[in-house]
Amino acid sequence: MTTTLVHLVRHGEVHNPKKILYGRLPGYYLSSRGKSMAAATAKSFTGHDVTHLVASPMERAQETALPFAEVTGLDIATDHDLIESGNQFEGLRTKGWRSQLLNPIRWRLMRDPSIPSWGEPYDDVLARMMDAIERARLSAEGHEAILVSHQLPIVMVQRAIAEKPLPHNPLDRQCDLASVTSLLFRDEILTDSFYSTPAREI
């Protein structure tokens, strides 16, 4: 029996002074705190048997992957299937009393939260994430792989393996910045998962 670990790492904190939903918009990089988070989480993999390192194409994910490359000695591969979920509210303030979602012109996009109607369907996000995970499992078979991605895509995987509905309240997510969701495979079967926050003190 072959044991393989696939670790899903969320990127670190992003410099976002305007507090907008940046989604897939270009030009959003890690803050200095985000870089420290990434370094702390990468350091926790010192001595691990990591043979495959891949990241979302977004700048914040690529930056987060850099200290992992230093720790593991691996090059960073890019997998578009790890990208942030699509969202029609990109560029808007979506939280607090200044939220631009309070404008009735946008309410039509919120007609069905179960899809969700304002963005990439949850089922599609999960499908592409599982494809990326399977490719990583095969590439790192018998070893460990690190995949740097984003909160919602990782949460879709968490909910699926926990047999929970994909539609959910964002306040219920357990996927902190620079956190690690580890998937344990025995041969091709996913048998367990673990969650950790190596950067929680930062």
Q: How widely separated are the two ends?
A: 38 Å
Strand content: 15-25%
Query: SSE order, as H and E?
Result: EHEHEHEHEE
Uncertain spans, ≥5 residues at pLDDT below 50?
none
Kindly summarize this structure in a few lines.
The chain is of the alpha/beta class and 202 residues long.
Could you walk me through the main structural features you see in this protein, from its secondary elements to its overall organization?
The chain is an alpha/beta fold. The protein contains four helices and six strands, in the order βαβαβαβαββ. The protein has a six-stranded mixed beta sheet with strand order 3-2-4-1-5-6. Strand 5 and strand 6 form a beta hairpin. It is globular, with a radius of gyration of 17 Å. The chain starts with a strand and ends in a 6-residue tail after the last strand. The mean pLDDT is 95.
Summary tags:
202 residues, alpha/beta, six-stranded mixed β-sheet, 4 helices, 27% helix, globular
Give me the secondary-structure topology:
Layout: E1 3-10, H1 32-43, E2 50-55, H2 59-72, E3 77-78, H3 122-139, E4 144-149, H4 151-161, E5 180-186, E6 189-196
Parallel strand pairs: 1-4, 2-3, 2-4
Antiparallel strand pairs: 1-5, 5-6
